Amino acid sequence: MWKFIVIFLLVISLGTLGFILYKSNSDLQKAGVDTGITLSPFSKSESEEDKTEDMAKNFPLGKPINIMLLGIDRRSKAELGYRTDIMILISVNPDTNNVVLVSLPRDLWYQGSKINGLYNSSGWEAMQNATEEVVGMRPERFILTDFADFSWIVDAMGGVPVDVERTFTDSNYPVDATKGYQTVTFTQGAEILTGERALIYSRSRKGNNGEGSDWMRMRRQHKILGGMLEAVFQPKSLFNPMVVEKALKTVTQGRMDTNIMLADAKYLWDFYKDKDDYTIHSLFLDYEYLYSPPAEQYGGAWTIVPIGGTYEIFQSKVQDRLLGIVEDETADLVGVVQNDTDL
Length: 343
Prior knowledge:
It is built from 10 helices and 14 strands. The chain is α+β, with helices and mostly antiparallel strands and about 350 residues long. It folds into 2 domains: about 1-155 and about 230-325, 2-Layer Sandwich (Nucleotidyltransferase, domain 5), CATH 3.30.420; about 160-215, no CATH class. It has a 6-stranded mixed sheet with strand order 11-6-1-2-3-12, with helices on both faces. A hairpin with a 4-residue loop joins strand 8 (about 170-175) and strand 9 (about 180-185). Helix 1 (about 1-30) packs antiparallel against helix 9 (about 260-270). The relative contact order is 0.19.
């Protein structure tokens, strides 16, 4: 999975920012201006001292690297009223070779409203503050993707292989075009998910057989991330072989949004050679740490809040995983299997 995380960040960040660089450079050259800019993201033109300085600015040295994956419920680029229904913090500790994936529930109450509306209403800094307050880690960078972007990148990889844990059917899966519902089924076993199927697999939250909750779809989202590890270099993948110039042209052009800088991507790429040395931990902020208060206390909204009004226990678990302190990995799944159709 770490291999995927590195490649995913590399492709998206270099693609997004590289395309901007490509377009700016191309336009200037058409105007007869010699920019002296190379399109290669692995350019050695900058000194190692400058590169280290850039990395220190973007990712504090000696501290975990924190990047937020934000999945929004936008059906088209024209929509402005979207919510971040998927919030996954990727925290990497290079000193201990541990990676922690933390999913935040969309209905978490934060400063007077649900946290999934925070990014759109108040911006990235507010999302940073909230994540730090809840998880204890402050993300420096983000990658934001909508339904179309997600489906596209899965198809661009030639589909994503996933091992479906159990058979389940969701009879209330939304059809965005008609505002109606359809019945979808996933059968236990291996399946190569198309972009459309992967989107359904990651969004479904009304399934039977123990799959009808926000936390179970969070688990499925983590499984898709793992599947992308294999998918990147499938024979039909657009990224096989990985040609950076090709990635610059295919991944961007108005698709995903990110604030990852070129220096960030170079820094992240340096981890690739050590990818097999990393241990991945999946954590979910669930009913082990949260409870559902009476709706009338929150203006009639169904929401979830931290037990005892604090996230300290969960934050301690995140820190333990980053340090490699793991007493019982199965404990990370406590509360996740709870069925909750109100979510």
